[in-house]
Specification:
The chain has 307 residues and is an alpha/beta fold. 35% of the residues lie in helices and 20% in strands.
Length: 307
């Protein structure tokens, strides 16, 4: 009868939807859950949005506060795809308990958080130049204590968790001008604060000694320009063969970090990366070949200073 045919058809549709739901659930369970810290920032957001668009990954982006979370979800010009609210969380990386909670169930973490210098509005009388401070936290707090919390939480949650750390070139030179940012005079002719590259280097060494799978990326000067348009060059210890250029787009840093998740050759590596100018060389597409060009070299942490 017509009624029996309708019932039979409905049963078939229910079975089909059940199978589809089961299949989708399996695919979802197979996705790699990746925590991306600093997703409200520029480089972190580019990496986060890249993973959102990639099959096989379920990224969780972290922001400093609710305001940053709202801005990330709504978009600020860096990406147009909608971001599910449940994939953005507020996290204070200096809060150990909160970090441990957010790290549960993750397979990898991209650390894109860093202390951010800003003008204080004052001028250095000896140089006549504006002075800079770290209004959202000194490097010791953010780049060392916060990153140490992330590394410890990763190891506690999953001893096999791949930790990919975005750091900075310049660490072999203790007198790098970046280390002077945020320093203030103290008693006895000493100074406090600053030394951002030294604190970064301390976190890097801590990660390397943790026993976790790691990748440490030292980008050169960061450009707010499109990625995927330049030849990338890698090296170690602030020396990069093949180019005198010392910068690259943030988007290309994000591409290298995501490639580190996808290619096991990047595990156990610490290296520097810059790009050639647009139009010079061949645009980098093969990230396996890129890391192979290091010839097995890694950065030497006996160089420079560690805080």
């Amino acid at each position: 009868t017509t009624k029996e045919k309708i019932i039979s058809t409905m049963k078939k549709w229910i079975l089909a939807f059940s199978l589809l739901a089961s299949s989708s659930s399996s695919l979802s369970m197979a996705d790699r859950r990746v925590l991306v810290t600093g997703a409200g920032g520029q480089t972190g957001q580019l990496a986060f949005r890249s993973l959102l668009a990639k099959p096989g990954f379920y990224p969780i982006g972290t922001t400093r506060n609710d305001e940053s979370k709202k801005a990330l979800i709504e978009g600020d010009g860096l990406g147009s795809q909608a971001i599910p609210e449940e994939q953005v969380v507020v996290l204070d990386i200096t809060d150990r308990d909160s970090v441990e909670e957010k790290m549960k169930g993750c397979d990898a973490v991209l650390i894109c958080t860093s202390a951010k210098p800003a003008p204080t509005g004052e001028v250095d009388e000896s140089t006549g130049r504006p002075t800079f401070g770290f209004p959202r936290g000194q490097p010791e707090l953010v780049d060392w204590e916060g990153q140490r919390n992330l590394i410890d939480a990763a190891k506690k949650a999953n001893p096999g968790m791949h930790v990919i750390l975005c750091s900075s070139m310049g660490g072999t030179n203790p007198n790098n001008p970046l280390n002077n940012l945020g320093k203030t005079p103290a008693e006895g002719g000493k100074t406090t604060g600053g030394d951002i590259l030294k604190w970064k280097r301390k976190a890097e060494k801590y990660l390397m000694d943790s026993g976790l799978p790691y990748t440490i990326v030292h980008p050169g000067g960061l450009l707010n320009e499109p990625g995927g348009e330049r030849e990338l060059c890698v090296g170690v210890d602030d020396v990069i063969p093949g180019t005198s250029n010392n910068s690259l787009p943030r988007a290309d840093v994000a591409r290298v970090m995501v490639a580190s998740l996808e290619n096991d050759k990047y595990r156990g590596r610490s290296f520097d990366v810059v790009s050639k100018p647009v139009g010079e060389g061949r645009v980098t597409e093969d990230f396996s070949k890129l890391v192979d060009s290091l010839g097995g070299k890694n950065c030497d942490y006996s160089l420079g200073e560690i805080a």
